[in-house]
Amino acid sequence: MEEIHAKSSNVRSVLLKGIFDILKCHGQNVFCEAEDREVTFIDFLDDILSQSRDDTEERDIIVKGIFKIYTAHHTWSPRILSKLLMLLYHPDENYSVRKYVNCFLQTYGHSREEVECLVKSFLAIINLLFDSDKSSPYHNISIKTTALELVEFSKEYEHSEEFSFKEKFQDLLVLKLTKGFLKKPWRLSALDLYNICSGIMPKDHEKLLKLKENIKII
Predict the structure, then answer these.
(1) Where do the Nuclear condensin complex subunit 3 C-terminal domain residues begin and end (predicted)?
(2) Which whole-number Å values give the CA distances from 32 to 25, 47, 104, 169, in the listed order?
């Protein structure tokens, strides 16, 4: 990345496009000499995303490039995907990036692996919002609004006829929000918690309690 940043803007754009074309085809196999190719691959994507500059064209190339890696099934990392999805809520993010995120959400989530990745990413977004301090650009983002939007996104696959999950996203979200509220009630009011959960809380409360005991994702 340091070598790329040292180049002019036009050269960086060409290099980045070439890098993502290679990664889309070969994925983590590019790092064949690494001891743990998957970890190295994820760290690389994290680095290239976090160090992307304010240049709109460069930012677009990086975001589109990483999304293509996901659709090519070269990674299932919720760590990177949650950061990409958070761009939808970043107050300073440009319109084109938000458009890419929305397009991705409309086309991703048609297999069990994709849905599992989305669920973990959605829950990671809630974590990020609860943990954001006053210096974070996400501090003023409404957890209630975001949670309700994630519920809407999840409806695309929550009742899929092709596959089902023992743990539904909405149940996991209830547990995640409740835990966040108990730890940091100043980040989410009791009224907002009620307004979110009242519409998605399962009728079988015992099921939710058992889920809390068994699931490690929360």
Answers:
(1) 8-160
(2) 14, 19, 28, 35
